[in-house]
């Protein structure tokens, strides 16, 4: 699964940034225009609100799982959430989390023996 998560993290960086670069090439770094377009109509507002709620849920999930498995890389994922987006942060966190879960499973199986 780690390879799958890593692949999705790469895809989750490349595809969204493709569209961001197109916007920046056409409009420059016009944050006001970006926000205006993000909330330009009810369907774009729907996707924006859905995205922000998903980000909030991801942050809660990430900190809960990080505490549970003592995941040190949570700050990298938080940084990627605010610089790239959920499409990178979520699969990257799952990529990191996978190795901690395997470690925990190994520790638990060794304790039983």
Structural description of this entry:
It is a single chain. The protein is mostly helical. 88% of the residues lie in helices and 0% in strands. It has 5 helices and no strands. It has helices spanning 2-27, 31-38, 42-69, 74-83, 86-112. Helix 1 (2-27) packs antiparallel against helix 5 (86-112), helix 3 packs parallel to helix 5 (86-112) and helix 4 packs antiparallel against helix 5. It is elongated and about 60 Å long. The two termini are 27 Å apart. The mean pLDDT is 93. The chain crosses the membrane at residues 5-25, 37-63, 75-96. Keywords: Membrane, Transmembrane, Transmembrane helix. This is Membrane protein.
Largest beta-sheet details: none
Low-confidence stretches: none
- Please, what is the average pLDDT? 93
**Beta-strand level of the residues, as a percent range?**
under 5%
Distance between the termini: 27 Å
Radius of gyration: 18 Å
Helix content: over 70%
**Extended strand count:** 0
Write the element-wise H/E pattern from the N-terminal end onward. Answer: HHHHH
Number of helices: 5
InterPro entries: DUF2834
Protein name: Membrane protein
Organism: Lysinibacillus boronitolerans JCM 21713 = 10a = NBRC 103108
Keywords: Membrane, Transmembrane, Transmembrane helix
Features:
Membrane protein; 113 residues; DUF2834; elongated; 5 helices; membrane; transmembrane helix; transmembrane; mainly alpha
Quick structural summary:
By secondary structure, the protein is mainly α. The chain has helices spanning about 1-25, 30-40, 40-70, 75-85, 85-110.
């Amino acid at each position: 699964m780690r390879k799958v998560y890593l692949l999705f993290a790469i895809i989750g960086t490349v595809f969204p940034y493709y569209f961001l670069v197109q916007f920046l090439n056409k409009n420059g770094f016009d944050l006001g225009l970006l926000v205006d377009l993000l909330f330009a109509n009810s369907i774009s507002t729907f996707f924006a609100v859905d995205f922000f709620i998903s980000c909030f849920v991801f942050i809660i999930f990430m900190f809960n799982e990080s505490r549970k498995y003592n995941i040190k890389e949570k700050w990298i994922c938080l940084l990627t959430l605010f610089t790239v987006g959920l499409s990178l942060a979520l699969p990257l966190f799952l990529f990191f989390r996978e190795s901690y879960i395997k470690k925990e499973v190994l520790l638990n199986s060794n304790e039983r023996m």
